[in-house]
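Figure 2 data, in text form.
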Amino acid sequence: MRTVCGLDIHKDSIFMCILDEQGKKSERKFGVSTREIKGLCNTLKSHYVSEVCMESTGIYWKPVWHLLEKDFRMYLVNPQFLKQLPGRKSDVKDAQWIATALLKGLVRNSFVPDSMIQQLRLYGRRINELNKDIIRCEQRVDMILQSCNIRISNYVSNIDGKSYQKVVGALLEGERSADKLVKLIHGRTLNKHGRDTVRDSLEGYVQQADIDLLKQYMEALKMHQAQKQTCLIEMVKLCKKHYDRAFTLLQSIPAIKEQSAAIIISEIGTDMTLFATAAALVSWAGLRPRNDESAGKIKSRKITHGNKYLRKALMEAAWGASRTRGSIFYNKFWRLRQRGKKQQKCTVAIARHLLVIIWSLLSRDEYFDKEYMQKLSTGVA
């Protein structure tokens, strides 16, 4: 006889409902400590439970999953999917409704990678957070310089470049002379905008409070950059140790280097049997245009929601691939541009193409064949 369990997980409590095919029900409330979760595990075993289902509520499901996955077949369900099922969920306990949906075979299991991939994800998503912190610190540094009427960011290509960093470093050391600061600027910038113009942009009014805040933001910036580098090094180590073949295959694709390959593996894993087709993976990543059409009128072709971390890594790789001269992605990008497509839509199309190729390479265990793909794109193959 099949016996299942539904878990309704909250920050400080877990509601359990055990249900069998004869309709026999057992309910109980547990805490969220490791001891309580182990007690939950023993209770499930005593009732001969074979399957456990829970909603993906924030991060609260993760410790429960890790402690139960060795003993039971686990299901992780999107809460939005359960809400769409016919029934009156608001009138019954959540755990009972989850157990009922599992027993009737109405739930669809979400993709949960193995423990090593989950470790990679922690590093990869931390890198994503650190990138945001780095950008924020750089923006704050520039805001302070702008408030001091130092307008060098109007002339340098980016605020994380060497010239800009040299000027900030000199200001922190006490240098205020625009004539000396202008010597730190790269010659190309001086030739492009004129030495006098750049010199005038470096003459400002700097107070001690500005220097103190500037110093704090620069220290935070260096710390974030060091942490990002540490996370990347650890990701590369794990990939080379456990997924070396897939790691190498991905880097055979133009514009995908170590960081992009590691993040892609951390999000989709290496087992492509989890995604029936390349289209299924594209849809899961949120790179498929939505089909919003009514009465013959197209209302929207925006991409769907999906894995934002994977999508961001692919968009960055697509940006680089579309600028790699001689590659199929470069040719495809400019063909789309010539047809009047906007740059952002062209980049999304390249990202979608990259993901299809990634699925194919990992499924077939093959390297990217540049010459064959070039012939295929031109219709020769």
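Caption note: DSSP finds 17 helices and seven strands in the chain.
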